[in-house]
Design a protein that fits this description.
about 350 residues, 3 domains, three-stranded antiparallel beta sheet
């Protein structure tokens, strides 16, 4: 994380309530701190503005403005964060926190962490919804909502449900089940994603996420179902192979579709399997030999083990990038496995 944390103001642009984060950075705030205090402590008290770009036309022998492209400038430091289309809609850092202002009062949400990354090119905030659930009286998961935006075009402005398994600090976007299948987190009611070519609407985001708790209640029920589903060693290996992207190498019976042969386990599959057998919380009743445990093994691998230049880039991938995509894929695959078995 340290390699990505924004230090433009001379301090780590992270604020948190509660326990010190694992990376050790940030300023601790009282849980009752208002959003203005969060904005300052998290280093989000700056604005981003679009500035015209110019070039020297040596044929015309004059300086001309470059049409269709602007520079996004951080106004407190003057840093250029990126060059983008002039249609790029800016969501200010302060608006990331404003997203929570109304629902904090109406829904009882409380801020847990917020900050800026990569010199202020990305900003995020994470809030607890005040509703945890515990499987078999010991395996606790916290309900969260993540809001984030970028100024370098790397991801769209987004608000999404997120769950955090406490025993291992696994984070997983809550892909909400609808009927017999899981709706992709990019499309379902659990996420509101807006490209930077469209104005972000806070009220619409609140409604899309289903902040009246329905989406979270659905997720809780689904995780409880996964914890009750016993998964065989063969199913585990098949699931991990599919998650790792080697599904095309699985040989199946042409008549019944059952697996005849699996490819030699890749390093990714071996590492996920090790997390499944020996990772934090793997011996808990909810995870030991269950579909829930298999899903959490994928999540633990992506959050804590996946190869990366540093912990910060791994976190970035697991939250917004390829790692997040793999975790969403795992949710869909494990849900399909259960549906077929049923």
């Amino acid at each position: 994380m340290a390699a990505l944390v924004d230090f433009s103001k001379g301090f780590a642009a992270i604020a948190y309530a509660g326990e010190v984060p694992w990376h050790g950075y940030g300023k601790q705030l009282d849980p009752d701190a208002d959003l203005d205090q969060w904005r300052i402590a998290a280093g989000l008290d700056y604005t981003v503005e679009a500035q015209p770009l110019y070039f020297f036309n040596d044929i015309a022998n004059e300086t001309q403005e470059l049409d269709g492209t602007v520079a996004l400038q951080r106004r407190d430091t003057g840093a250029i964060l990126s060059t983008v289309s002039d249609r790029y809609k800016i969501v200010q850092p302060g608006e990331v926190l404003e997203f929570y202002r109304a629902i904090a009062k109406e829904e009882g949400f409380t801020m847990e962490t917020a900050g800026a990354l990569s010199g202020g090119k990305r900003v995020w905030a994470l809030a607890s919804i005040g509703d945890d659930f515990t499987l078999y009286g010991q395996d606790r998961t916290k309900g969260m909502v993540l809001f984030a935006t970028s100024y370098d075009g790397t991801f769209a402005t987004q608000a999404r449900w997120t769950s955090v398994r406490v025993v291992c600090n696994n984070t997983l976007t809550a892909a909400i089940p609808h009927g017999s299948r899981m709706v992709n987190a990019e499309e379902g009611d659990d996420v509101y994603k807006v490209p930077h070519s469209v104005e972000f609407d806070i009220k619409k985001a609140h409604g899309k996420l289903g902040l009246q708790r329905e989406a979270w209640e659905e997720w809780k029920r689904h995780m409880e179902m996964l914890s009750r589903f016993t998964i065989s060693p063969d199913q585990v290996l098949e699931f991990f192979t599919m998650v790792a992207g080697n599904g095309e190498d699985i040989v199946r019976n042409s008549e019944n579709g059952k697996v005849v042969r699996l490819p030699e386990p890749s390093r990714v599959v071996k590492n996920i399997t090790n997390a499944y057998l020996h990772g934090p919380g793997s011996d808990m009743r909810a995870a030991n030999g269950t579909a829930f445990g298999a899903l959490q093994a994928v999540t633990f691998y992506q959050d804590h083990i996946a190869p990366s230049s540093n912990a910060g880039t791994r976190w970035d991938s697991a939250t917004f990038g390829i790692g997040a995509q793999r975790k969403r894929k795992a949710v869909q695959l494990i849900s399909d496995l259960i549906a077929v078995a049923a």
